[in-house]
Amino acid sequence: MKPVVQFQSISKSFGANTVLRSLNLTIVEGEFLTLLGPSGCGKTTLLRLLAGFELPDSGDILLDGARVNALPPDRRNVNTVFQSYALFPHLSVFDNVAFSLRMKKIPSMELQERVEQALAAVDLPEFGTRKPRQLSGGQQQRVALARALVNRPRVLLLDEPLSALDSKLRKAMQVELKALQRQLGITFVFVTHDQEEALSMSDRVVVMRNGVIEQIGGPREIYEKPANLFVAQFVGESNLLEGIVTARLDGSSLAAKVEGLDCVLRLAKSYHMGDRFNVLLRPEDLHLVDPSDPSARLSGQLVEQIYKGMTLDCVVELDSGKRLFASEFFDQEEHARDFQVGQRVGVSWIGGRERVLKNNG
Ligand code: ATP
User: Fold this and answer.
1) How far apart are CA 76 and CA 155, in angstroms?
2) Mean pLDDT to the nearest integer, 319-348
């Protein structure tokens, strides 16, 4: 796969605040790549460096193999869609989309054709004469998209473009954006702090914290095989149990205590006696069973049940005091409905669904 964007050892500080620390990232042609991380981790700064609104302190940014570190934004084949849309209120939809083509003195026949194509791509072919204030939030967002797409950018940068929309429209736009990206084949770099949005749209997700990349991977990999505790807790709901290695049984099996219970786990060779670790369990992998059921691995008291339509969410307090969250889907097994709050319950999961993570932050 052909690299389109390469960040090579990029560092950036604002005064004493180091925002990006020797960051390396390659973005390949045609992919939908999402930068995900908590507020302030440096996502927008990375996007602004690529767009040319900021200069790196050190390192190189390559676009199609050419160094663009100090190239002004209008000389890079990259366009940005902002959270605020930034439409010109006094211009019609057509003129908003045509604006950058007029600046580039594109002949009027070609301009007309390209604006119409861009408006058709975002499903607003009849809206050219309207003013932005006559459009809904979702429609304004599509105009902002058309205005970027009309330049036929090599890479489209999207900085939290859906965050101003209500949740239903946001979900619909996620599907539309992904379909549009696939249809146009343009490389998308999307910034969000919403993990669900990142997982549902992206080919690859880059999870960032404090200016460094914690993990890069496909949505499934990030969710099911988080590289460390930070990724496990930031992406999705998680239960974390504390464990300690108590004995080595054979080559790869180690005896361990997890939240006070003795168990046998298969751990990597790098674990030693006395090592502390965490066991990650996703709520949807946990099932409530009778405490005497042979499949029960842990037991505790059912302290809460929340009906959510598709799922019944249960909170179980273990004897250690730790609370576990379990989401039971109604279309699977229906045990959860048989239990009453206050009752003792067992918690089971299919072996192998747990993920063991070293306790190193
Ligand atoms: P958010 O999700 O809140 O937008 P982010 O991950 O996109 O966060 P950035 O906008 O990249 O984070 O900001 C990273 C850090 O850099 C923050 O501490 C921010 O205050 C700081 N910062 C960003 N731009 C500037 C600037 N122009 N001058 C000074 N500090 C800045």
Assistant:
1) 10
2) 81
Instruction: Identify the CA nearest to 278 among candidates 230, 319, 213.
Output: 230
> pLDDT tens across 214-229, in order?
999 999 999 999 999 9
Segment 274-295, tens digit of pLDDT: 888 888 999 999 999 998 999 8
Nearest CA owner, ligand 1 atom 5: 40
Domain extent at residue 333 = 237-358
* Cα–Cα distance for residue pair 299/327, rounded to 1 Å: 16
Nearest to 83 by CA among 200, 202, 190: 190
Closest atom of ligand 1 to CA, residue 44: 7
Distance 160 CA to ligand 1 centre (A): 14
Mean pLDDT, residues 112-129: 90
DSSP 133: G
Same domain, yes or no: 56 and 143: yes
Q: Is the pLDDT of residue 44 over 80?
A: yes
Structural domain ending residue among the three candidates 233, 255, 283: 233
Distance 89 CA to ligand 1 centre (A): 27
